TrEMBL record:
Native organism: Acidithiobacillus ferrivorans SS3
One Pfam family linked to the record: Acetyltransf_7
Top-level taxon: Bacteria
N-acetyltransferase domain boundaries: 102-161
Protein name: GCN5-related N-acetyltransferase
GO molecular function: acyltransferase activity, transferring groups other than amino-acyl groups
Length: 177
């Protein structure tokens, strides 16, 4: 299991929220449900193995008063994207071979806690992690595969742009290092 730091986030409604690496000994994965079967199944069945194999880093958000309950989670991996999939202005700035990026494989909030700002907190955690990681290993953008139109709207809300040729893949340039 990869080691990672936790970060504490104070929220009046939840007490202290903490971002932690997914740990099967500490976190109750079967109880997590987001309303999207594929995202739930990933956490229940595949996330631990993928973390161990170095395919994805999976982090969860918990309330330190109820630390077993997963309020939300996300997975991040290294990836690349063909610059031709980006908008014309961005393409001009990039080489003609695939550019490095991070892939936000999955992000979900527990169904009973949606609409309370946890998705926003998770997105903040994701971007902060990417900005930290790319001090060591270059990455141009954060890329996400949206699982449906609602997810696509959520990412568009945060400034992600749909890829040319596949609008369900969206990207967010991370800006200058
Ligand atoms: C999509 C999801 C992650 C959003 O999390 P959430 O905790 O409900 O969202 P928040 O309450 O933090 O909302 C954050 C912001 O996103 C906006 N938002 C939330 N869902 C949205 C949607 N579907 N479309 C557009 N904007 C959305 C909110 O209005 C809010 O905007 P504001 O910060 O400007 O006020 C959550 O609803 C979820 O897990 N859904 C099921 C799984 C899913 O579809 N995951 C998407 C990734 S594949």
């Amino acid at each position: 299991m990869p080691r990672c730091k936790t970060r504490l986030i104070s929220r009046a409604r939840f007490g202290v929220l903490e971002e932690q690496c997914l740990d099967p000994q500490r976190h109750n994965r079967p109880a997590f449900t987001s309303g999207v079967g594929e995202l739930d199944e990933y956490l229940h069945r595949f996330a631990v193995q993928q973390s161990k194999k170095g395919i994805a880093v999976v982090r969860v958000l918990v309330d330190t008063d109820l630390p077993k309950t997963i309020l939300g989670y996300y997975s991040l991996s290294a990836a690349q994207i063909d610059a031709a999939q980006m908008d014309a202005r961005t393409q001009q700035k990039l080489p003609r071979y695939p550019v490095p990026c991070f892939r936000l494989g999955r992000l979900a909030v527990h169904s009973t806690h949606q609409g309370l700002g946890l998705g926003r907190i998770l997105m903040g955690c994701v971007v902060a992690r990417c900005l930290e990681a790319r001090k060591q290993v270059a990455a141009y953008a954060l890329v996400v595969d949206a699982q449906g139109e609602e997810a696509k709207a959520f990412y568009a809300h945060y400034g992600f742009t749909p890829c040319q040729g596949n609008p369900m893949i969206l990207y967010l340039p991370l800006g200058a290092n």
